[in-house]
Amino acid sequence: MNFIYIRSAFWTLYLVFLLTVVLLVSGCATGQNADISSGLMDGEKIDLTTGKDKFLFTQWTGSAIPVWTYIPDRKDIRDLPIVIVMHGTGRDADRYRDEWATLAEENNLIIIAPEFSKKNFPKAEKYNLGGVFKGRDNVYQAEDSWAFSAIEPLFSRVVDLLDSRQKEYTLYGHSAGSQFVHRFLFYKPDARVKRYIAANAGWYTMPDFTEIFPYGLKDAKISAENLKAALQKDVVILLGDQDIDQSSSSLRRTAEAMRQGVHRFERGHSFFNQAQKKAREFNVPFGWRLGIVRGAGHSNAQMAVVAAKLVY
Fold it and tell me: What is the pTM of this model?
């Protein structure tokens, strides 16, 4: 009897131990405040947690990119849409992430905001224009060096880290980030973008092969087929109707930019209208929409409220 009792107690304790281990593992996987993922790639371990976080993205050929994240406090985030948010000329991805945080909680969105620093991606050439060309002579650069070329591997990295089921993402940008988004559309035709949202760009690369790059597609190394594909994609040109300051210090005033309009609101309409006209010329379905945010000026925070509703 004593032997049977001891053996039974042993198995009881063993079963309790196993149950405890299972519960601990399950808690780590589903607990609301637990680490979402532990990723190991190229010797770099990354844990992303719910709420605000940050990691260093290195899985591409260019400079390391700090990435500011917001993950809603949910038990399972694998099915939540992923929004890659492109900052403006201030290169302040952390502020952009912060301005999207409440919206992410309310709308069940994962926010990924890469920071393209002025040191590693200087001036409009390396960020707004994607680094496709270099210098006064517009020397065409290897594609893997473009700023544009960081976005697809960044999405893949985030999917791996979060064990996400997402196959596509929304690409949003405001101001200089909006410039990045609409040019990315032209130069990366095979990107896994579900929807492009370009908000309040200061000036545009017009879908016009008679206007020289960067104000148009002449000498831009964009084919007619690439443009046709871009015109059929799901694109929202989002404009604040109070983004009409003609004296803004950051508003480009070259002759080419002024032909697009006297302020950002007017230039956005010019870009959309030219694209619509080009779609008719090509006889292809036009997939773009024009969205107007009433009362909004040149403000990411104001535009993001509407953009968040457009993700689903």
Answer: 0.86
